[in-house]
Design brief:
By secondary structure, the protein is an alpha+beta fold. Helix 2 links the parallel strand 1 and strand 2. Helix 2 packs parallel to helix 4. The chain is globular. The relative contact order is 0.24.
């Protein structure tokens, strides 16, 4: 894992009934990557944060918080899976 990766905190905005989310959750499990799970249905604050940042509540979304205070938001399950695999391989 690279420096940027080790200093970053990952959070996944998701809900259980979403098949795209399940795909991402499965990969997180397989890779053993540390990701905080933020269920947008059981915790309204997570959904509000997501909509505030992205303008819509579509999930899954991966948020990366870097040590320097910057955050990046990534939607699209296929992109998230590819990104997680990249982190794991680095
Ligand atoms: N192409 C997207 C599809 C994501 C998607 O359709 N998510 C649904 C749940 S499975 C959703 O959040 N729908 C509610 C909304 O868009 O507000 C992906 O692969 O991540």
């Amino acid at each position: 894992m690279n420096d940027r990766g080790t200093q970053a905190k990952l959070s996944l905005y998701y809900y259980d009934q979403c098949s795209f989310c399940q795909r991402v959750l499965r990969v997180i499990d397989e890779l053993g990557v540390e990701v905080e799970l933020r269920n947008v249905l059981t915790t309204p604050g997570h959904r509000e944060e997501l909509i505030g940042a992205r303008g819509r509540g579509t999930v899954p979304v991966l948020k990366t918080d870097f040590a320097d205070g910057r955050s990046e938001w990534m939607g699209e399950s296929a992109d998230i899976v590819e990104h997680l695999n990249t982190l794991r391989a680095a």
